[in-house]
Amino acid sequence: MNEREINFIADLMNKMDRKAAVVGDIINDYLSHHKNIERAYFLESVWGVIRAYTRLKWAYPDENWQERVQKFLKNGIPDISKAPKHIQWEVPEWFLLHVPEPEKEMPALLNSAPIVLRAIGIRDEILKALQQEGLNVESCAQSPYGIILKNYVNLKNTNVWKKGWIEVQDEGAQLLSLDIGVQPGESIFDFCAGAGGKSLIFAQMMQNKGLIQAYDITPKKLFELVKRATRAQIKIIQIVTSLPNPEKKFDHVVVDAPCSGCGTWRRCPNMRWHLTEKQLKHITRTQSEILNRAEQYVKPGHFLSYITCSLTVDENENQIEQFLNMHPNYEIVKQKRYSPARSNTDGFFLCQMKKN
């Protein structure tokens, strides 16, 4: 790695020292202006430094970031066995009080995450098609739809992508969708649909039969869902930009709630330094409001599913306990955590409740 690239990484880390920087945008901008860079090695190096942010600061307290980066590139992660746990695990110290079994969860959250695809069709045939295009892929161990992409490529240039045979979706998101268990012919209200990852896998599970209404408080997020559904030839998803009359009821209401996102820190390690305790409290209040608003659309005898991509108790079990205290006509059907330590996936929480 040349001096210019080392200086870029050092400057990026200085920006992280000053404030929570949106490093992905900064890295992409740099790459767009340096086309001849050895991209794979550069990205491995810069994200490696970001993942080791507090460990490098602790091990080399008197060095500047140019020196820390050079030592990392030469020697890798320094010996931090005597450092406090939150330093070893690259998280704010306060955060450890909010996660169950941090000694298991936090070390696993340090690793990089695989690129996982969802096959839209017969997985073995799609695997062969991807391999014929030169991609290094293999089946996921748990999701029947899952495919691991072992080398980075621009998927949008592949025929398999253009034909609508694959989507990018973590195996944990696939597994929790399967655990919700929607069936062909049912009605689904995707209450916080965003770009529609859950709606799309639900449509696949439902064999394109039934009804999915996708809503988000920020309608422009749904534009991507329209494009993705068209590419995958999904016909049963309806976009709604305002909440329907509460008299309308659904077999499944799914709340993929806005959250801290700490379950995805393997993919976005710099986000560890964006979250504060004050923000966490604000997030939990918002989640509670959304969950209480969404439950009115559940048919009696049917299901409300609450999802986060978080590992905190505040956003997960405590949120459900509070909801059940306010709504004793609900009972838990299944409650499950997914995480790098538990399921070798991103971190998610699912609680499915039945309305009596």
The general outline is globular
* Shape-level CATH architecture of the largest domain: 3-Layer(aba) Sandwich
Q: What share of the residues does DSSP label as strand, in percent?
A: 15-25%
Q: Kindly state the number of beta strands.
A: 11
Total domains: 3
CATH class of the largest domain: Alpha Beta
Let me know the CATH homologous superfamily of the largest domain: Vaccinia Virus protein VP39
**How is the main sheet built?**
7 strands, mixed
Mean pLDDT: 95
* Poorly predicted parts: none
Give the radius of gyration. 22 Å
Number of helices: 15
Please give the alpha-carbon distance between the first and last residues: 62 Å
Order of helices and strands: HHHHHHHEHEEHEHEHEHEEHEHEHE
The helix-and-strand class reads alpha/beta
Helix content: 40-55%
Layout of helices and strands:
Blueprint: H1 3-18, H2 23-32, H3 39-51, H4 53-59, H5 65-75, H6 85-88, H7 102-108, E1 115-119, H8 123-132, E2 137-139, E3 146-149, H9 159-162, E4 166-168, H10 171-180, E5 187-190, H11 197-205, E6 211-215, H12 222-231, E7 237-240, E8 250-256, H13 277-294, E9 298-308, H14 317-326, E10 330-338, H15 340-343, E11 348-355
Parallel strand pairs: 5-6, 5-8, 6-7, 8-9
Antiparallel strand pairs: 1-3, 1-4, 2-3, 9-11, 10-11
Helix pairs in contact: 1-5, 10-11
